[in-house]
Amino acid sequence: TVHLYITVVYGLLDPDNTGFIAVENFTSLVEHHELQLDPSKLDMLFALVQSNEDGQVCYQELIELMSSKRSSSFRRAIANGRRTLQREILLDETGLGVYKRFVRYVAYEILPCETDRRWYFHQNSLCPPPVFMAIITIIQIVVFMCYGIMLNKWVLQTYQPDFMKSSLVYHPRHRLQVWRFFSYMFMHVGLEQLGFNALLQLMIGVPLEMVHGILRISLLYMAGVVAGSLTVSITDMRAPVVGGSGGVYALCSAHLANVVMNWAGMRCPYKLLRMILALVCMSSEVGRAVWLRFSPPLPSSGPQPSFMAHLAGAVVGISMGLLILRSYEESLQKQCSWWVILFSFITFLLFAIFWNIFAYELLGVQLPPAP
């Protein structure tokens, strides 16, 4: 209905089909429209009119706006201050319910621009709900509880042969079982690793999923997981892998990099203190993984899990993840940098596949016995 109305009006105001109408005519359309528009879209329409340097409004840009898709040129114009919004900032709104206050909190935690925050606040809905990170976390907890009860051990489970025999663990002897490059994320060394990953997945992953959607965040998380196991198979060829740290570090590094690059615009409280705390915790987790890999505290039948998945996840987050988080409500397919990153990731995947097929035998790697 909205698109039909706009098309008819545009046909009247743009009889020559140039794709543009004069700002004066468009202003009249906005002020006398007969549509039920939410406050965010109405703000955007007025912003589109104000201080337009060309004196024209593009039909395609209007259609994208009414479809809840903002073009990059429109967002850049707002960011550069050429188009301003008239309403007060989101923090000044009162009388909000518990859920709306939580949505506002998420907006200020994740998004660096007031325009984006108010857009998200008015556009937000629970369809689809942010279930991906919650489901992953629940499965990880259930799997850990099952092995904890079975082994009667809640820390350093990788020292138990029965734990390493699991078909979910990535082990170089079983690298032809492709699912292990994904399934290792459900297994954890102990309660400390599970608690760290689950906490970050819920505190950072769920808000990111609420803002950027299940498709983008699940893609980022799984890219970190796959990159983690493949990197281990290349750089630490004798080591197994457990834990969802590749995906967790992809999310966290992307979010932290986004905060740093938009430092002035971020309005989350105590951001410097929280940034330092996050970096210390993430570095400590990597240090713990390095210590367990090279100085195991208990006798073991083979190498302990590698720490390279953490680093690979961080690289995915800083590259692919940062672009995703900076492209809120923008099409990734229209950005050249997205295709460059995607091509690089696919190239890495192909190289890793060939490496796993041929390199182990060519290099004569002495693999530990299968658990």
Describe the structure.
About 5% of the residues have low confidence. This protein is mostly helical and 371 residues long. It is elongated. The chain contains 16 helices and two strands. The termini are far apart.
Largest sheet: 2 strands, antiparallel
Instruction: Give the spatial strand order of the biggest sheet.
Output: 1-2
Order of helices and strands: HEHHEHHHHHHHHHHHHH
Mean pLDDT score, rounded? 82
- For the record, give the distance between the C-alpha atoms at the N and C termini, rounded to a whole number: 63 Å
State the shape.
elongated
Oligomer: single chain
Gyration radius from CA atoms, angstroms: 25 Å
**Helix share bin:** 55-70%
User: How many beta strands in the DSSP annotation?
Assistant: 2
> Unreliable runs, pLDDT <50, ≥5 residues?
70-74, 76-87
Number of helices: 16
Given helix and strand content, the structural type is mainly alpha
**How much of the residues is beta strand, in percent?**
under 5%
